[in-house]
Amino acid sequence: MKIIKKFFLKSIQIYQVGISPWIGNNCRYVPTCSDYMIQSMKKFNIFRSIFMGLKRIIKCNPWGDSGFDPPKI
Prior knowledge:
By secondary structure, this protein is mainly alpha-helical. It is about 65% helix and about 5% strand. The radius of gyration is 12 Å and the shape is globular. It starts with a helix and ends in a 5-residue tail after the last strand.
């Protein structure tokens, strides 16, 4: 499991450094969705983290909410 978690963390970090600057700062939430995934992976197991991250990305739409939304139980 640790190898899979490290793979996801590195993938997110590559996204943050390589892709995110080209897209621009369009995030509606604090922390950003990628930071949210990293924080949730440090707190929870891999399956719950992926579920929480996907749920967060789905919430991020024009009719969705915005503001401070840390990973929580």
